[in-house]
UniProtKB/TrEMBL annotation:
Membrane topology, from the record: Multi-pass membrane protein
Positions of region (Disordered): 1-30
Record-linked Pfam families: DctM
Name of the molecule in the record: TRAP transporter permease
Transmembrane domains' residue ranges: 55-76, 91-109, 121-143, 155-171, 178-195, 224-246, 349-370, 418-436, 457-482, 488-510, 517-537, 543-562, 569-591, 611-629, 638-661, 673-695
Length: 711
C-alpha cells in the first residue's frame, strides 16, 4: 500500500508507540540471564586477545606462577623505582613472549594435551622453542647494553641473528594473540624497507640490507625497544592490573547499580543505564568487548524486555562500551602513549579528552531517548530499581581506589606511581571486605587468593598488547629508517589539494564563499585519514592502530597546520570507531551474540549511534578550543563549538530516529540533516542558519502536540 507523502513518515510506522511491546516482551521473557561461562565464551569468540588455551595442571601452575611474578615485578617497580629503560623493557618483553606461547595456541583456542616427547608438560615442542628463543632474544639487548654504543651501526653476526630471531618470534606471537592483520602489515613494511630501490615514484628510497634493517629495529631505540614498548611496560601494564583488581572488589558492579538507580526510571530506562554504566565502567576498563559483555549481560535483556528491537539493544551497548576507550583516566592506555609522544603532562591529555568523551555519550543518550519516545517505551518500575543510597552505603569502599588514583594523577606524580597507590588501595579494600565478612583465617586465605588471581589475570590481559606494541615498533622503525611517513603525507596532501581545486571551481558559481581552497584541502585530507584509520582498525586493536597512524598520518596533518595534540586525538578517535564499524565491528558482534540479533544490522546501528564520535573529531580540528588546552584557546570558540556540536548531534539524531517531539515529515528529516551539518561546523553564521532551519520544525511539533500530550 502506498504511503501518503503529506503525512509525517512516523505515522505509518509499524513500530509506532506500543505496537510491538507485547510481542517483544514475550520474546524477552524467554531470554535467560547469561551465565559467567557464557559471558566468557562470548568474549573469547569475538576478542582473540583473551582466547587463552586450556593448560594441564602442571603447566597451568607454571604459567600462573610466571604471570604472578611478572605482575609482582611491575607492582614493585611502580612503587619503588623502574630500572634503566633497556633492562625494564627487555625483562617485560622476555616474560611476555615466553608466556604468549604458553597462553595462546597456534590455531584457535587449542586444547589441553597430555605430556609426551613432542609435547613436554602438554605444550608442543615448537612452542617451547619459540618461548625460550623469544625470551633469550629479548634479554640479549639488556645483556650487551654496556657495549651497545659500539655495535650500533656495526653489529656483530650474533647481533643480527638474535635480532632476526626476535622479529620472527614477535610476528608469530602477535599472530597468535591478535590474528593476521598486524603481522601482515609489519611484513609489508619490512619488504618496503628491503626493496626500496624497486618502489615506484615518490615511494622509492635507497633501500637497506637485512643487517641494516636489524641494526635499526633491534639495537636502537627507534624500533622494537622504542617508545611503544616503553609505555606498555611502564604505564599500561599497571593500569590494566588496576582495572582488573578494581573490578574484583566490586567497583564495576557499583557503577552498574548506580546507573540503574539514577537513569532506569526514565523512558527507555535500561538503554540509558547501558550508556551511563558503560561510561563509568570505561573509566577503569580499556576494552570495548569486555565492557560490552560485562554490562551487556544485564542491560541488553532489560532493553529487549521493555520493547527495544534486539539489534538496537545490541547496538546501544556496543556504542556505549566503545566510549570507554575515550573516557578518562585510562582511555584504553592511549593516554599514556600520548604523554610520551607529545611530551605533555597527563593532566593535559585527560582535560582534552573530557568534552569529546561527553559528546559521544550525549549522542548515544539522545538517540536512545528519541527511540524510546517514538516507540512509547517505559522506564523501569520502582520495584525493578535498586536504591541509590543503599547501593552506595553498601559499596562506597570500592570507590576509594579510583578516587586515590585520580588524586595522585592530578597531583603531578607519575602515572605508574598513581597506579601503584590505586593497586595498593584495591588490596586494602579486599582486606577490609573479607575481614568484615569472614573469620580472620578464612579472610586471609580469601584475600591471598583474590590478589593472586587478580595479578595473574591482569598479567594475562597484558600479553597481547605488549606483543602488538613491540611489533608496531618494527613498523615505526621502518618509517624512521625510510622516511615513508613524509612520502605518504606528500601523496595524500597532493590528492586532497587536487580535489579541493576541483570543488573550489564548482563552488565559484555561488555569490558567497563557503570554504577556501586550503580549508577544503584539510577537509579532504581528514576524510581520507579517517577512512584509513577505520580500515586499519578493522583488524588491529586501538593501541596498535593509534601507534601506526601517528607514525604515518600525523605528519600529513602537521603539514596542513594541525596542532599535534589535535592530530593525535583525531586518529585515536577514528581508530576506536572501528569497533562498531562493519564489516569487522567486534564490539557490536559481541553485543549481537548476547541479544541473539543480526550482527551486521547491529553493527550498522551501532555506527549510527556512535555518530558523535565520528562528527566531533572534525569539530575539534577546525575549532581546537573544544579540547580546552590547545594553543589559541578562547571561551567564545569553545562555547560556539560545544553548543553547535550538541545541537547538531541532537538534530541528526532526530532525523535518524524520525522523531523530534513527534513524528516528522520526510522534508523535515532532510532539513534536520542539513541543519546538523551547519550546526557542527564551528562557525557563527553556519550555526545561526542551522538554528533557523530547526526552529519552524520544532515550533510546528510543539504546537501540534498540544497541552494534553504526554511529557
Amino acid at each position: 500500500m502506498a504511503t501518503d507523502p503529506s503525512r509525517p513518515s512516523g505515522a505509518d510506522d509499524p513500530h509506532a508507540p506500543g505496537a510491538q511491546a507485547s510481542a517483544q516482551a514475550d520474546a524477552a521473557a524467554r531470554d535467560a540471564a547469561l551465565t559467567e561461562a557464557q559471558m566468557k565464551e562470548l568474549e573469547e569468540r569475538f576478542d582473540p586477545e583473551v582466547r587463552f588455551r586450556p593448560l594441564g595442571p602442571t603447566l597451568g601452575v607454571v604459567a600462573a606462577a610466571l604471570l604472578f611474578v611478572l605482575a609482582c615485578y611491575h607492582y614493585y617497580t611502580a612503587g619503588f623505582g623502574i630500572p634503566r629503560a633497556a633492562t625494564h623493557r627487555g625483562t617485560h618483553l622476555a616474560f611476555t613472549l615466553a608466556l604468549t606461547f604458553l597462553a595462546f595456541a597456534a590455531w584457535g583456542r587449542g586444547e589441553a594435551r597430555r605430556s609426551s616427547l613432542l609435547a613436554p608438560l602438554g605444550l608442543p615442542l615448537i612452542d617451547w622453542v619459540l618461548a625460550l628463543a623469544g625470551a633469550a632474544a629479548a634479554l640479549y639487548v639488556p645483556w650487551i647494553f654496556d657495549d651497545l654504543a659500539f655495535r650500533v651501526g656495526n653489529p656483530l653476526p650474533i647481533d643480527v641473528w638474535m635480532g632476526t630471531i626476535l622479529i620472527v618470534v614477535l610476528l608469530e606471537a602477535t599472530r597468535r594473540a591478535m590474528g593476521w592483520p598486524l603481522p601482515v602489515i609489519a611484513l609489508c613494511f619490512l619488504a618496503y624497507a628491503y626493496f626500496g630501490r624497486s618502489m615506484p615514484g615518490v615511494l622509492t628510497h635507497p633501500g637497506a640490507d637485512w643487517t641494516g634493517i636489524v641494526n635499526h629495529l633491534y639495537l636502537t631505540s627507534q624500533g622494537i625497544y622504542g617508545t611503544a614498548l616503553g609505555v606498555i611496560s611502564t604505564y599500561v601494564f599497571h593500569f590494566v592490573l588496576f582495572g582488573v583488581l578494581a573490578t574484583r572488589i566490586g567497583l564495576g558492579q557499583l557503577f552498574i547499580d548506580l546507573a540503574s538507580a539514577l537513569a532506569g526510571r526514565y523512558a527507555g530506562g535500561p538503554a540509558k543505564v547501558s550508556v551511563i554504566s558503560s561510561a563509568m565502567l570505561g573509566s577503569i576498563s580499556g576494552s570495548s568487548i569486555a565492557n560490552t559483555v560485562t554490562t551487556g549481560a544485564l542491560t541488553i535483556p532489560a532493553m529487549i524486555r521493555i520493547g527495544y528491537p534486539r539489534h538496537f539493544a545490541a547496538a546501544v551497548e556496543a556504542a556505549s562500551s566503545t566510549g570507554g576507550q575515550i573516557t578518562p583516566p585510562v582511555m584504553g592506555a592511549v593516554a599514556f602513549l600520548m604523554i610520551e609522544y607529545l611530551g605533555v603532562p597527563l593532566t593535559t591529555i585527560l582535560t582534552a579528552a573530557l568534552v569529546p568523551a561527553f559528546m559521544h555519550f550525549f549522542g548515544v543518550l539522545v538517540q536512545v531517548h528519541l527511540e524510546a519516545r517514538r516507540r512509547g517505551l517505559r522506564g523501569l518500575t520502582k520495584a525493578e530499581l535498586p536504591d541509590a543510597w543503599a547501593v552506595f552505603r553498601r559499596d562506597w569502599l570500592t570507590t576509594i581506589p579510583l578516587i586515590l588514583l585520580v588524586a595522585v594523577l592530578l597531583s603531578g606524580r607519575t602515572p605508574y606511581s598513581a597506579a601503584f597507590w590505586g593497586i595498593t588501595s584495591c588490596i586494602g579494600v579486599l582486606i577490609i571486605q573479607n575481614v568484615m565478612r569472614h573469620p580472620l583465617r578464612e579472610a586471609a586465605k580469601r584475600v591471598a587468593r583474590e590478589v593472586f588471581d587478580g595479578f595473574v589475570l591482569g598479567a594475562k590481559f597484558s600479553l597481547s598488547v605488549t606483543a602488538a606494541a613491540a611489533l608496531v615498533g618494527v613498523i615505526i622503525g621502518v618509517v624512521t629508517l625510510t622516511g615513508v611517513g613524509f612520502k605518504i603525507a606528500y601523496m595524500v596532501t597532493s590528492v586532497a589539494a587536487d580535489w579541493a581545486g576541483t570543488v573550489s571551481t564548482w563552488l565559484a558559481v555561488l555569490p558567497f564563499e563557503i570554504m577556501d581552497t586550503m580549508t577544503l584541502t584539510l577537509l579532504f585530507t581528514l576524510i581520507m585519514t579517517a577512512f584509513v584509520c577505520i580500515l586499519m582498525g578493522c583488524g588491529i586493536p586501538t593501541t596498535a592502530n593509534y601507534l601506526i597512524m601517528i607514525a604515518v598520518a600525523a605528519p600529513i596533518l602537521s603539514m596542513l597546520g594541525v596542532q599535534p595534540l589535535v592530530a593525535h586525538f583525531f586518529v585515536f578517535y577514528y581508530g576506536v570507531l572501528a569497533d562498531i564499524t562493519p564489516p569487522v565491528a567486534l564490539a557490536a558482534y559481541a553485543a549481537a551474540g548476547i541479544a541473539n540479533a543480526n550482527a551486521f544490522k547491529a553493527g550498522n546501528t551501532a555506527f549510527r549511534l556512535g555518530m558523535g564520535k565520528a562528527l566531533v573529531p572534525f569539530v575539534f580540528v577546525f575549532s581546537p578550543s573544544l579540547l580546552l588546552v590547545t594553543d589559541g584557546f578562547t571561551w567564545g570558540q569553545f562555547f560556539l563549538a560545544t553548543g553547535g556540536a550538541m545541537l547538531g548531534i541532537w538534530a541528526l539524531s532526530a532525523a535518524f530516529a524520525d522523531w523530534l517531539f513527534g513524528p516528522l515529515y520526510a522534508v523535515e528529516r532532510a532539513l534536520l540533516g542539513i541543519a546538523a551539518i551547519l550546526l557542527v561546523a564551528p562557525d557563527l553564521v553556519a550555526t545561526l542558519i542551522g538554528l533557523a532551519l530547526i526552529a519552524p520544525i520544532a515550533a510546528r511539533q510543539l504546537l501540534a502536540r498540544g497541552p494534553a500530550s504526554p511529557a
